[in-house]
What does this fold into?
Amino acid sequence: MNALHQAGVRHLLRHPAQLALALVGLALGVGTIVAVEVATESSRRAFELSLEAVNGPATHQITGGPRGIDERLYVRLRAQSNGRSPPLFAPVLAGYVAIGERTMQLVGVDPFAALELAGEGRAPGVPDPATDGLDTLRDWLTEPGAVVMSATAASELGLATGRRLELLVGGVPRPATLIAQAAGAGPGLDGVLLTDIAQAQEWLGATGRLSRIDVRLPAGAPGEELLARLRMQLLPNLELRATRAQLRETLAMTDAFTTNLKAMSLLALLVGAFLIYGAVSFAVLQRRPIMAVLRALGATRGQVLGLVLAEAAALGIVGAVCGVLLGLVMGRGLVGLVSQTINDLYFVVAVREMSVPTVSLVAAAGGGVLTALAAALLPALEVAASAPQLGLSRSVLERRSLHLARSLLVVGASLAAGAGLLVWVSGRSLLAGFATLFMLLLGVAAVTPAALRALALAAARLSVRLGPVARLACRDIAGSLSRTGVAVAALGMALTAMIGVAIMVQSFRESLREWLIQALRADVYVSAPAAGEDSGRRLDPEVVRSLLAVPAVRTHSESRRVVVPSPHGPLDVNAVRLAPESYAGVRFTQASARSAWREFARGAILISEPLAWRLQLAPHDTLTLTTASGPRAFPVAGVYREYGNDRGEVLMGLDEYRRLWDDDSISGLGIYLAPGVEARVAAGELRAAARGRQALFIRSNADIRALSMRIFDRTFVITRVLYWLAAGVAAVGLVSALLAWELQRSRELAVLRSLGLTPRSTALLVLAQTVFMGIAALAAAIPAGLLTAMVLTEVINRRAFGWQIDLHLSPAQFLDALWLALGAALAAGAYPAWRSARAPLAPGMREE
It folds into this structure.
């Protein structure tokens, strides 16, 4: 047994390049998984810390609709609070403000109520006379525009205590003074600006209103009794929910996004499994004669099997450790991309620290080791089961490889059929969609060796006129499946994923571009700057009148975007009063435009595709929303296409909304210009009309389209990074496998040289073989990539987000895959070609 292990160690050390390439592939696979986990967990953790810092010890929250809660409810609840363990209440008003280029959450609190709610703990950022003295509390209550922020945020903004600053609240500049810095408050407050609740009401234009009322209830049966009693005291338009439930609901918005990222990271590890298989199988192949001799001398099959698996385990452990370290480094770069996407699409989050989930690190490392063992199992079983006298025969191995390739052809067809069946029977399951994708990719890998052999034999027949050397080169590829099949299969699978993702991204991009062209009918759009659909996104009525008085304005549309409660959780509502030209911007996918608009005028609602998919709604169904007077069921008149919100939205008439929610605010205008007026000139006139009163976003429809496409491209940078990582793993695998194969052919090439083949022709022969294999992998990947794109668009994206994406094909989608295939093939053949052309003939022809 010692001799076996010593032989194994000596062999690995004598082939450091092959060992290093295998470790790089596994490390990239594990590292990609770790990087995605670190990035997504860091963003989620930063948001959790922010909410925990703002919520403090509150166990529940009372929330209302778009206009919030009447502050008189808080007064009434405080007056009714009695008993030995009464509920504790604290009023909160939240919105968003901008300080320069930075957006922060403005949180208005009552310091006395916040400290009472905190009990023995500390309310982060709120001045406490017991620890901060009375001066800070006096400034909080008496200094106009007094604010508190974390020391980290103040340092980044270059602010000192006592420094005056300017806030932009809903586009209106407001003077403020930094009276204190919350030192040691942790990263949760880095994106939060605290002020007195009365000051927040003035800035946000919400006099007498609250965003929510924080509630702290005792644990156990007393708390449940108080909770039931409190629910009975609330009006029908108010909700009482646990703070943890609110947090889970908010974070759930990103679930589909993070699931897609994790699936892409698993693809890199899957490709890495083929690389490990190739490395172990080549190591076994190179030692088949030695192992056959050892078997003949008494080594058992179990000992040989244990040797190969032990080597694979050692390889997996080293690769996994390197992958974890690499993932931590890559995670730092990926955190910025993930957090930027979450800010663009979901909610504002400021990531200050990397969160490294230990369980995820252990799982990724364990996955790397298990992948190495699983990949090594087949070659280990094969060499252990071989009879000693057949271990020295390469022909036996190639016959088995040919039989295996034919069997894998059946396996590949079965996987493809199983993927189709799974799509058909799995309904709306996203997990089943990803299982379908991986079955399809494995099916491609399974059929690639047989496809490679068929293409090589066909090329051999077609190359008869080119001479015997070309025919020999093609037949050598067909006859060496044990060495070439796995590498080409791994590359083919990665190229399939690359083509599929490229088509999906481009199809999504083109669908979005076409939708923007159709939906943005107005010439100029006006909105107030704010983050998300918060209470600060509203236009000043006087400013609106001034804008509409500009001579260039012909007609306009009005909209009010808000979030309203419902039995399904908070829903985005877009209340509109459309200009006649705007109706054509809505493209219906269910119901006819005529009937839908007729019902819409009678008070019905329209819903977007993502919302219809998520809630399983169709025309003639009803959707219940919580209005100012309580829940109300609205008939659904139609479903329309929309790509601006992956959660979906409700479209309703502005007059109906105002009647039911008692909110006459406007969030945005769509302005149609008089004939002959340029959008650029009109935008300047509109800015002049609002100057000095409210800073507004005034953009032409072309500017909004360009901005939307930039956000889209920024969002999918992550996807592109991940599939290039997977492709890089496959390229490393091809280089490793073909390098080993070419270096083992030194005797064969030396014989050809002795028969008259020139050094230059020898080098070209080697390069031609590797390029042929790269092209063969690409040929197998193109049809499979089209199927993968269909799965990504019609199954995975549909089930994850509810979007219906039209397929768009272009040559550019296949060019990256072509360059990768050719680049990997040339890289794999460059050194063997140079070596075989310069190698002396006599040593190369010598038998051991």
